[in-house]
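Posting for a labmate who doesn't have an account.
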Amino acid sequence: MTSNLRDYFKYNTLTTSEVSELLQIPKSKILSMVEEKVIQPLKVSAEGLLFLKQDIDGIIKDRSLKLPIHRIHYRNIMNDGTGYTNKSIEFFEENITKLGRIESIFIYFNSIDAVKAGFFKIYKNDEEYDSKHLYSVDTPSFVIRDVQGNEIWLGGCKCGYGGKGSGGSKTILKKLGLNQDVIDLIPYYRVINIFINDDGNIEIIYNNGIDRTSQNSRVVDDLDVSVLFSKEINNLVLVQEDSRISKNKAIDILKGFRSFIPFPKKILLLPSFDMADRLGYVVEIDSRDYFSFYNLIVVDSSGKQLWVNIPYKVDVPINSQDEICNILEYLGFDVPEEKMANKIVHLFNAAVSKKIDPEPIVFEKQKKV
């Protein structure tokens, strides 16, 4: 099997557990949907079911859940707004009686996994909303949801490590009456979804979340990135933090967070920081007018984007620049042949000589599997 074919199946198919995580419903419900022909699996075997991701995306779209930001509008959310474990436990104790029968619990280590699941709110106020185009997001690491869709969000209780945050999660699960074998999972997995049916039976989905795309399940801890919300595209943007001094290579960030952009449909390569500034691919670092600029933009079919900064020499053909070629090939795009690569250099130089703002280089044609 070729590497392209492996990548295709890796990023275009889903297991039952992954569908459960995406739709936030138990696997038993998914099996019912299969029996009712609401969803058709790609393959049925003794090992389980395999689904096409585009079919699941269609269900998400039909349920008006395509953009997670829209999901919070009809939910009653009680948010502790803190990252302190003790305060999160106190908030839980003060508000748990406001929930009805608990239907599901979602616990995360990485905020990116919480964001991907739709658990985020935008940091903004009315005065700044019209003057900014990127906003930080507030994410919980522990969510309790009742059958009416009401939720408690806690920021100081986590999973996937042996620290105080995991200890807080254990305390809350114990107070909720969950079995010890469930509680014992907390330190070992970075995403834990718990579903509780009407009879009190429990179904658990657990994995290492965003880390699953890396050979080393801890490698993403060393990659400096942030998730922001873009008002312009009405979606999420993952950016390389302070790109001018970051020690992370763009290809490492792309590999570490590939599941954030599973279906890249377009890549923009910007020849200059002036162009990045003109097109809005900049992030303000602090109040001293210090900005981070990005010259490679990956656009996913979901609308999400990933921004990184790479070494790019405008006077050298792209097919002679290894880092750019590696990124294009990794994401499944064609590297320009020599004739086209030379033409790109010529067009850029011509625009500069005529004092015309050059256009970004756009890659859209993907390799066929």
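Reply:
Got it, the structure tokens are right above this. Residues 64-74, 213-219 have pLDDT under 50 and may be disordered.
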